[in-house]
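quick one, 155 residues, struct below
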Amino acid sequence: MHNDSVVGLMKELTAKLLAVTEEFDGRLAALAEPVAAAEDGTLSPAALIGRAHAIMAERRMRRQHLPAELFHEPAWDMLLALFVAHDNPQPMNIKALVAMADAPVTTSQRWIEHLYKLRLIDRVIDPADRRRVEISLSAVGKDAICNYLQAIAKS
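---
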C-alpha cells in the first residue's frame, strides 16, 4: 500500500511539473518576438534558441492529444534542453537533464552515456561535490543542433 501511494504521488507531481513547464513554454513563446532571417536565410543565435524552445513546447503539446508512449526520444529531448541551456550560467546536472527527457532514469542515463560517446555532450564532475556531474552540450553537439535548426528554418 505504501509503495502504491508513493507511485501515485510521483505521478501526480510529474503531471503538475509538466503542466507548469507547458505554461512556462507557452508564456515564453508568447513573449518571443519574431526574428527575421539574414539575407542568406540563416537565423541568429537568439532565433535558434527560440526555435528550439518552440520545438520543445510542440513535443510536449503532442502528449495532450496523443498517447505519450508514442513519443519516446529522450536523447532528442535532452539535446534540445542542453541547447537551450547552453548560454545559461547555471550548469545542467544529470538530475535536471533526466527530468527534461520524460523517460525513466535508467533509460535517460543510458542515453546520456551514448550521447557522451558520440561526443555530443560533455560531462564534468563538480569539484565541490564529486557526486554531482554537470552536463553540457559539446561544441560538436552545439554545431549539429545549430545546423539542424538552420536547415529546417530554410526548408
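The two ends are 53 Å apart (CA to CA).
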